[in-house]
Design brief:
Elements (H helix, E strand, L loop, with lengths): L1 E4 L3 H9 L4 E6 L5 E6 L2 E3 L2 E6 L4 H8 L2 E7 L3 E4 L8 E17 L2 H13 L10 H5 L2 E17 L15
Antiparallel strand pairs: 1-9, 2-3, 2-6, 4-5, 5-9, 6-8, 7-8, 8-9
Length: 168
Amino acid sequence: MKTITIEERQKVDEIIASNDMCYVGMVDTEGFPYVIPMNFGYAGDTLYMHSAPEGKSIESLEKNPNVCITFCSKNELVWQNEEVACSYRMKGSSVICRGKVVFLDELEEKEKALNIIMKQYSKREFTYSEPALRNVLVWKIEIESVSTRIFGVRHPNSRHYKEGESYY
């Protein structure tokens, strides 16, 4: 099976947009990896998230704002040969982004970011009360690097390869 590196921006955007959740990795205050699932919004080269204004992740990010964010497509079990266990693999795609978290303070910026997040889940615009905006912590991550892979692609010589089978 093949793993293919993808560089086309359109495909990266499609993989990110197809997700309802991402996984945010950071280093906790004790120096250990810490990964949390989060809702997100995506616009241009920027990711947005929101959380409570305090907690373990906030303490960790205040100490070290570097994050690694992973998106994965829905996977499918594939194989080269049904009789060979080592030929089984999941077929899917992933995008891994790196950047630094900046917490937004301006209420207008927070509202704009929250609407970008909500566009991932709904087609409508929302309004937010001032207390709601003050009580939410909005994360902004400028994407510094992206790595995208398509994995588990059957080799064309496999007897299970279907003519025209997509890498995606």
